[in-house]
Amino acid sequence: MLDIRLIREKPDFVRERLATRGGGDEARIDIVIAIDAERRKLETALQQLQSERNRLSKEIGAKRARKEASDDLEAKVRKIGEEITDLTQRASEAEEKQKNLLLEIANLPHASVPIGKDPSANVVVRSWGEKPKLPGKILDHVALGTGRSWNARSSIS
Questions:
Q1: Model confidence over 103-134: pLDDT tens digits?
Q2: Angle of CA points 23, 29, 33, to nearest 5°
């Protein structure tokens, strides 16, 4: 999973590297950035509301100690509590969306990876030994896993 800080700090670099994969993930970077900005805005607002609620709660305590009425402040604190609940839910939803989107985006290929549309563009870095010549029919992992291979397996080994 890509680090959101990398996307935030170097979005053009991330888009460029993803474009070399050819999967279209580079188009999702703008969506990730928008969701991240919204999430961060919600979290900032949430912190401000929590700070305000704490300040008002101290005022309520001071008024009660002086035996003064604090009904108006208590109503404000209740209203702030409802706003905090709403913002917490919205921030959590934005964080979940961002996480899911980041999980869907492929990792960045290394700069040394050749750019190509199919495996024919791959470069052989090194090889050793001779490739074995396998007798009989070669089965893929699906055929092996479904059990169709038990009779043919003896011809492979």
A1: 999 899 888 887 877 777 778 888 899 988 88
A2: 165
Rounded percentage of the chain residues whose pLDDT exceeds 70: 94
User: Which residue has tokens 């839910």?
Assistant: 89
3-state secondary structure of 33: helix
Rounded alpha-carbon distances, angstroms, from residue 56 to 72, 76, 88:
10, 8, 20
CA distances from 106 to 11, 58, 95 (A): 15, 49, 19
Tokens of 110: 């290394």
- End-to-end, the C-alpha distance of the chain in Å comes to 39
- Give one DSSP letter per residue of 43-98, joined into a string: HHHHHHHHHHHHHHHHHHHHHHHTT---HHHHHHHHHHHHHHHHHHHHHHHHHHHH
- What average pLDDT is seen over the chain? 87
State the angle between helix axes of 71-104 and 29-65 in degrees (0 to 180), rounded to the nearest 10: 160
Identity of the amino acid at 34: A
